[in-house]
Sequence to fold (269 residues):
Amino acid sequence: MPSAITAKRRRGKRGSIRPPNRGLAWVMFTLERKLGPDEFIKTFFDVNRQDHQRPPHPWDELFRAGQCTREQLQGWGKERYYFTKQVPIKEYSILYNCPHAEVRRRWLPKAIEEEGEDLIGKSGKPHPEYWLDVCAGMGMDREMVRNSEPLYGVKFAVDSFANAAFKSSWLLGVAVSEGDDTAKAMARDLEIFRRHYSWVPDDALTFYKLHADVDQEHGLLRKEILQKYADTQELQEACINAQLMKNNMRRVMADSIYMAYVVQGLKIN
Fold:
């Protein structure tokens, strides 16, 4: 039997994640049928992997090549904080909206980790504070970043994503949570900082070191929950689309950041 993805592509329907001859993802992804748990998870990750085959965003190319100026990196760091501080809110939205005690109990340690393990007598602080360490390492004042307003395009992208994904459904919150792909991206970006932006102190990069490790464990938890609870075609489609929406949200953020800090030369100080 053909896979759910290839069957859609052969018929030229919306199941293809890329329109012909274009590098943009379709807004919605549809399945032909409900998938079994293993096939759904494979499709979930296959669609995400194929979506990441789109041409890199100009901001990502600039960053990965080590060509960002100090001012451009500072602008990116400030804007990224607005997204980062939403993550603990996402974790609590999942806990608040989820009716399944089993899921809540398994998800609670992740929520505490994001909010700060100092809550339970450990040394970890809230993860947005680790991002402020990155910003401080770039030469910015922590309180300035904490109290700053994001670019309108960044705020629009993040708020739209939050309202459509994790604030509307606990399961979609799980679908857009960090996983193996996030861990790999964090490890890659940590190496980029060390190679190209060594003026940022290594001890300011704990945010990347943490996520390169723990997101693999989080990814396994996400996978197990999605396998069990995405048990209708509609829920499976919604989870896949939430993931694609997150990817597109990141690209809209990058659009705004690139236009403001690269094309227009905006400086935050």
